[in-house]
Specification:
The structure holds 2 protein chains of 2 kinds. By secondary structure, chain A is mainly alpha-helical. Chain A is built from 8 helices and no strands. The N and C termini of chain A lie far apart (68 Å). The mean pLDDT of chain B is 84. Chain B is mainly α. Chain B has one domain. Classes of the chains: A mainly alpha, B mainly alpha. The interface between A and B is medium-sized, with 11 and 13 residues.
């Protein structure tokens, strides 16, 4: 009986899928919206990277929602994991783990600025090259992860992270609201668009991606620090290390 | 002038590709973690550097960026393999080669000493 139902259901699904596939005429370009994006983003917005134009400009409201989801995830994770910590000191709570070797420490110190530079490059050039605020922010967070793993005494300040995050988020929403002042829609471009393929092009896209980069970097750094600082058992004797 | 640069680029890219090939063969053929790491790290570092240098000769305008990438590879590749080797030593993986090889035995002893020192 079960098999007959399964076969019937499969047959019904297959019929409708086949129907939908055969009803599209062969060889006809159906991608009207995509064509619109491809034509508009270099010409009107002067954004070389069409993906960025779609993500930040045409669907900027959606990206604002995504950033909010990320913020909620970071906050939720922090509030769940924070209870596991019996105490919070200025030290990196991962100090129970063995100290990383001196080679790793020196290398981490040397690599950290390079990683920051790469992350900043990725999110500043988000409207010109592949990449953008989210990717650049993640790269910066990996730099902080390197320091957190290398040094037992390294700890990030959650208060300053929260400030960076808040300022970045307010910048994102504030740019959208400023557009309303100039008589445009929410998150519509109101700045001069500049020349295609130059760094100062694309109007608000670049500014928004810088803000997104800072926001993602601070949120992910906070998440990493919180996750590294989970302590299941507290050993009172080893506290002075 | 351009042809000389292109010839140099081809030479360096071939050197890099050869070293990458040897490194991957080494990773497949070597018996244990440490010798695999050695094959992987040394060969892949040199191979990547050769490739990058070759690309730099092909496109001289990119040379500064490629130089920065090369510095990054030179710094990060040996450090990461060092920490992998240290981690595997600390978790008690023994090399499969003969105990009579003096250099290996000394290295394992110094590793164990460093573990003891860290545990204090």
């Amino acid at each position: 009986m079960k098999r007959i139902i399964t076969i019937l259901l499969l047959g019904v699904t297959g019929y409708f899928v086949a129907d939908a596939v055969f009803s599209i005429p062969f060889g006809v370009d159906k991608l009207n919206i995509a064509k619109e994006y491809l034509l508009n983003s270099p010409e009107e917005l002067k954004v070389a990277n069409t993906v960025t134009a779609v993500v930040v400009n045409f669907r900027g409201f959606d990206t604002l929602g995504e950033v909010t989801v990320l913020f909620l995830a970071a906050t939720g994770l922090g509030s769940i994991l924070f209870r596991r910590r019996k105490y919070h000191t200025g030290l990196n709570p991962q100090r129970e783990a063995p100290q990383a070797s001196r080679i790793v420490q020196v290398g981490g110190k040397l690599l950290f600025p390079l990683i920051l530079l790469l992350g900043a490059y990725v999110f500043i050039h988000g409207h010109l090259t592949p990449g953008g605020g989210f990717q650049g922010g993640v790269i910066i967070a990996t730099g902080y992860l390197l320091l957190l793993v290398s040094f037992r005494k390294f700890a990030v300040k959650h208060s300053s992270l929260t400030w960076v995050e808040a300022v970045a988020g307010v910048t994102f929403a504030g740019i959208g609201l400023t557009g309303l002042v100039f008589g445009k829609d929410f998150l519509e471009n109101f700045l001069p668009t500049g020349v295609l393929n130059s760094l100062l092009s694309g109007g608000i896209v670049g500014i928004i991606y810088v803000a997104v980069g800072f926001k993602v970097a601070s949120e992910l750094t906070g998440i990493l620090d919180t996750m590294l600082s989970i302590k299941v058992e507290v050993d009172e004797e080893n506290e002075e290390n | 002038m351009e042809t000389i640069l292109e010839i140099l680029g081809v030479i360096f890219i071939s050197i890099g590709a050869a070293f990458l090939l040897l490194g991957s063969i080494g990773i497949l053929r070597m018996p244990d973690v440490y010798s695999r790491l050695q094959a992987g790290t040394k060969a892949s570092t040199l191979g990547t550097l050769g490739m990058l240098l070759g690309i730099g000769f092909f496109e001289p305008a990119w040379f500064l960026k490629i130089f920065i990438i090369m510095i990054f590879v030179i710094l990060s590749n040996p450090i990461s393999s060092h920490s992998i080797a240290r981690g595997s030593c600390r978790s008690g993986i023994k090399p499969k080669l003969k105990e009579t090889v003096n250099a290996y035995r000394d290295a394992m002893e110094s590793c164990e000493e460093s573990i003891k020192k860290d545990d204090k």
